[in-house]
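Re: duplicated header lines in exported C-alpha cells

Our pipeline writes sequence and C-alpha cells for each protein into one text file. With two proteins the header for the second block appears twice in some exports. Here is an export where it did not happen, for reference. First protein block:
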Amino acid sequence: MRIEEEYKKIGYFWLPGNEEKNIPGILSISDGGKIELEIFVLLDESIDSLNRNDDIDRIIGHVEHDGPVTLDNCFYTKKSPPLGGISKSKIFVYRVLSGAAWQRDEMVTFNTFSFAVDCLDEWIGISGINVDYDWKGKTVTISYNPPEKISFILDNGMKLEICFAYNLPSFLSLKEAKITQRAYFKLESEELRDLGDFAAVAFKITHLMCFAMDDVVAMKNVSATSCEIQRDLGDGKQYSVPIKIYYQSISYSEKVPKRDSYEMLFNYGAIKDKAQQVFNNWISAYGYLSPAFGLYFSTKIGAQKYLDGKFLAFAQGLETYQRRTSDEKLMEPEVFESLLSTVLAVCPDDHIDWLKGRLMQGNEINLRKRLKRLIDPFKEHLGTSEERNKFIRKIVDMRNYLTHYNENLEGEFVKGRNLFILCLKMEFILNLHFLNVIGFTVDEVKKIVKNCEPLKRKLQKN
C-alpha cells in the first residue's frame, strides 16, 4: 500500500473491555503499509502476560486528528516489562481502521470500499479539465466539468465504479487558481460484506492494473463506508462516515512508477466497450489461474532477485497456465488406465508402490509440448519454425538443468544477456495469453502486439 504522507500519531490505546486502562503510545505507518504501535506501558502487565509471547486480536485507540482507531491482528515484536525508568514495547499491527472503534469479536463489515492505484489517472485517460488559450488576446480560460462515474456489475454481486474526485480553486486566492482531479475505484454492495471480501476483489483489480500498465503499481487512499456507521448532519439527515484503512498490501515498490499510455499493454480506452467483461473475466480467472498469476507477478514485484529464479518462475508459470487451461493428455484416459493395469500386473510386489509413483503423471504431456501449444496461436511473432523449436529447446533444457542439475545439460546453460532475453520472450507469451483470458480475441491480441511498445521490446533480438 502506498502511504503518500508520513503517518505518525500520538494517542491512547487499550484492550476491548478495558477502557479504564488506556496507555499512551505512538502509531506509525510507513510507506508500503507496515504498521507499528510503540507503547510505554504494557497493555497487560500480569505475570502470565510477561511469560508468554501472546498475540492480540484487537486494540482500540484514540489518536490525534483522526479520533477513534481499531488495530487488528497484533503481536508484540518487543516486550519490555516496567522495571524502572522508561519502558518501551513495540507491537506489529496487521491492519488499522481509522474513524471508528470495533469491540472484541465484532465483525468488520462495509457497504463500500474505495481505493486508487498508482498511475490510475493515466490509465483511464479521462479528464474534465479544459483549457482554452487565446494567444492574441493574451487570455487563458480554464473550465471544469466533472466526468460522470462509470459503473460495472461484477459477477460476485458487487458494483464496481470508476469515480472522479476533484478540488476547485479557493475563492480567496489572488495568485493561483488550481483544479485537481483524481480517479479512483469504488466497490459497492447493497448488503453488508466482510472487509476481507472487498480487500480480495481490490487485490485482484490492483493486479489487473499491474498487468495492464506492465509495471508494479500499489494500492493507495483506501477507505470504506457502512450503513451502520452514520453521522448526523442535522435536519434528520445522515451520511456514512468514511473509515480510512491501512494494511501492508502485496503489490508495492518503493519507487513510485510513472507510466504514460504508450508505455502500457493497454489502457481503459482500449477496453471501454467491454470493460465489464474484462474486469469479470480477470476476477473469475483467479479461480483457476491463481498459481500462474502468482508466479507471473512474483517476477514483477521483485520477489525473484536473480535471473535464474525469474526464469524458473516464468517456466513454471507457463506450464501451470497450460495445465489449468487444457486437459490434453498423451492418450485417452481409458487407454492409459488399461495400460497402467497391464504394467502393474507384471510388476513384482516389492516395487509396485515405486512404479505407481513413477507412473502417476504418466499420461501428462511434457513441457516441450505444453510450450508448443502455448506458442502456436501467436507463432508468427516468434520467428520461423526452426527459431521457435530452438527457443522451446532452450527453455526445456534450462529448466531441466536448473531443476535437476543434470551435468549432461550443462553445455545448454544460458546466462547473462541471453537469459535475460529468454525471460522477456517467456513473459511475452504469458502477456498474450493473459490478454486472451480477459477477453481479447487472438486477432485483437495480434493487433495489440503491432502497436504496443512494451511488447515489442520483449521481442528484442540478441
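Second protein block, exported in the same file:
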Amino acid sequence: MSADAVGFALLILGLALLVGKMIRVRVGVVQSLFLPSSIVAGVLLLLLGPEVLGRFAGPWGENGVFTESMVTVWSSLPELLISVVFATMFLGHKLPTPQRALKLVGPQLSLGVSMASAQYVVGLLLAALVLVPLLAAPAMSGALIEIGFEGGHGTAAGMRPVFEELGYSEGADIAVGLATVGIVGGIVLGIILINWGVRTGRTELLTGSAAMSEDERKGVFAEGESNPAGEMTSRPSSIEPLTLHIALISAAILIGLGILEGLRWIEQQTYASVMLDDNTPLEIFAYVPLFPIALLGGVIVQVVATKTGLDHFIDGELMQRIQGWALDFLIVAAIGTLSLQAIGDNLGMFAILAIAGTVINLALFLLLAPRTIGRFWFERGIGDFGQSMGVTATGLVLMRIVDPEAESPAFEAFGYKQLVFEPFFGGGLVTALAVPIIFLTGVWPLFFTMLVVFLVAVLSGLLYFRPREMKDRREWEERRAAADPPPST
C-alpha cells in the first residue's frame, strides 16, 4: 500500500470528524445525548462503508463509497492509537505517591476484576448447562464472552490461531461478532446510563442539559473565552513544542515495546517449550497487547524526566490534547470498521452469550460501583463498564463524555488499574490460557477458579474498600453542604 493511500485515508477520517462536529452543533438530539463528534463520525463511516452501504447493489462497490485501502488503513489504526492514548496518560503529570496509587487502584481493581471474572463465570456456566448439551457447542464457547467483550476485536483476532489449533475455528468468528455487539452496546448503554446519571444527580461533573448553556451543549467555546491548549516548553527555533511532545510519546511507546519484546524473548527461551497439548505451546506474553506496557513506558519517561530535573519541559495540557487527538481518530476508525457480518452467524449461541454478557456487566456496574467507590463513583465506574462491554477504548470514550475536562481521578485510577489488570484479562494471561485450559480439562476447573476470583474481588470491595470510600464520600457531602446551605424558608 502506498504512502498516498495511507495519507488519503487519514484525510477522510479528518473530514468525517469535521462533519461529525457540524452534526453535533446543528442536531439537538445529538447534543442532548452528549454524543462526541467522533462517535457521530464513526457511525457515519459505518453507514457509508462496506458493512452497510457496500452490501447493497448500486454504483458503489463492496466497500461502499470508500476504497479497500481506506478500510484497511482504518482497521489497523485502533491497535496503534490505543498505545498513544495510554503512553500519554502520565506524561506531564506529577506521579502520585504509592499511597495515592494504592488508594485509587484498590476499589477500581475490585470492580474491574469482578466484571472480567464474572464474564467467565456466566459464560462457563452457560456452556455447561445450555450451549454444550442443547446446542452441541464446544466447551470452549464458555470463554467467548470475555474474549469478545473484555478483549475486543484485537484479542478475538489474536486468539484465532489458538481456536484453529484446537479445532474450533468458528469460535474466533463468534468472538469477533461479540466484540462488535460489545462496542455498539457499550456505547449505546453507556450513553443511556450517563443521561440517567446526569438527570438523577449521580454524576458530580455533568449537571444536566437544562443547566448547560447553548455553547456547552454544542461543545464549543464562546468567542473570546480563554482556553489554553498547552504551554510552550521549548523554543520553536530549537524544536516545536508539539514535536518535542510527540518525540517523548514515541520514546515511551518504544520503551514499552522493548519491555514487551524482552518478556516475549524470555518466554520463548524458558517455559514456551512446554506444550499444553500436542500443538499449543504455553505462551503468555505472546497475547499481551502493547498498550498497557506503553503506559509503563510513559511512567518510565516521566520518572526519568523528574529525577533529572527536566520534567518542566513536558506539559500535561499539551499531552492531553495529543491524547484527545489519538482517541478521536481511534473512535472514528474503530466504529467505522465494525464487522457486522459475524453477528448473523451462529445466531442462537451468539444471542445467548451477548445478552448474558450485557446483563452481567450492567448489573455489576449498578450494584458494585456505588458501593465500592466513594467520590466520583459514576465517573470512575463507567470506564470499567465500557471496557467490560467493548474494550478499553469504549471505557475511555464514556469517561471522556462524563468527565470531558479530566477533573475527577477517573482517568488516573483507570490507568493504575490497567497496569495490574491488563496482564491478566482482556488479552492477557487469563485470556490466553482460558481456551487451552478448557480444551484440556473441561468447563469446571476454570469455572471454580474464576468463581473464587470473582468472590474475592467482590468481597474485598464491599468489606475492605467500602468503609473507607464511604467515609470519604460522607466527608465531601458534609463539606459541600456546609459551603452551600439550603435557602431559608
